Each structure stands twice: as C-alpha cells, then as structure tokens.
Amino acid sequence: MLAIRPTRLVLFVLGPILAGCGAEPGPCDSLPMDGASVEIGGAPEGALGFEPFDDGADRPLVRGSQGGYHVWLNVRARGLCPTSTRLELRVFEESTDTMVVFQSLPAHLEPSVDVPDSADLPRAIAMIICPALTDGVPVADAVHSVDLSLTDADGRRAEASRRFVPRCDPAVQGGAFLADCRCQCGLVCE
C-alpha cells in the first residue's frame, strides 16, 4: 500500500497555487473596469487605417474583389484590453428598420499610430455589402445606422452608434464602377 505523508499532500495540492502567486501582472491588469470608450470610423479605400466621420456622413461604397460593394468600418477604442476583444455590430436601414448586417467576431486591436492610449483594428471590416446581404433593401443613398459594442475578456465594454449614408461615389476607384454600383446597390440600372 502506498502511504502519502500529509506534508507531501499539502505541497502537492498547494504547490501549483502558491507558485502562481508571484506572477507578473498582465498587460491589461492596470486598466480600470469602467470608462472604456469606442469611436466608430471608416477607412480609406485600401481598408488600412482609421478615418473618423461625423454622424450622418456620406460613406463611399467600394467595389470588392468579388464584385460586391461595401462601406469600410474601423473602430478606435480606449480602456479595453486590445488582445482579447469581441466586436459585435448591427447595421439597420432606417426607413424600413431592417437589419442588413449582423456580425460578432473576435477583434484584435493594435495601438493607434496617431492617437496615444488608443487602439484600432489593423484592417477595416466590410460594414455593408450589396447586393448579396441586403435582399432587396435599398443601400445606396439610404440612411443607415450602425450599433457597435466591444467587450474584452475581463468584461470591460464600450458601445457607440453612428448614422451614415452609403453613396456610389464617382471619385472612388476612379469612377470605374459607378454605373455597376448604382445598379447593384438599389439605384438605377443603365
């Protein structure tokens, strides 16, 4: 029969617990649990970087590599752990109150290059895609709203909303896809 001394049992059980007591604090341990914030923005045509826009602003519809059109979305967050964040967004076409996009995905944020103590998505995500995800709901020239939340693994949460108007813009991509954009995104097909 195997006999285990009580001191060995205590060390066996408590050893791993005590070993973790002197661990270094994580990179997000110093963040307060309240006061997180997020700003909704866009991105230039290449989808890299953060581009702020005002509530209700026109946002260009950009043709993607598979022929659909989207509006770029980026975020600028403060007070959240950037390596353990989940992004959830809902986009509504306001005149019909139809949800045209829902996404919930992990979001690894990186330090902002131009604003201290903030973090952005390294690459913007497609916020609106037409015609595939809209199922007959107008996209171009219609007011849309986006409701967005970011939550990190420790439970810090930030929310924001913004209105915008997707536009088929002749200045985007040299105007090469203007007629197709207008047709695919609910305007006139020529």
How would you describe what is shown here?
- This protein is mainly beta and 190 residues long.
- It has a single domain (35-184), classed as Immunoglobulin-like (Sandwich).
- The protein is 11% helix and 38% strand.
- It is built from 2 helices and 12 strands; from the N terminus they run H-E-E-E-E-E-E-E-E-E-E-E-E-H.
- Strands 1, 2, 4, 5, 8, 9 and 10 form a 7-stranded antiparallel sheet that branches.
- The longest helix has 14 residues, at 6-19.
- The protein is elongated.
- The protein starts with 5 loop residues before the first helix and ends in a 6-residue tail after the last helix.
- Mean pLDDT is 84; it is low at 9-19.
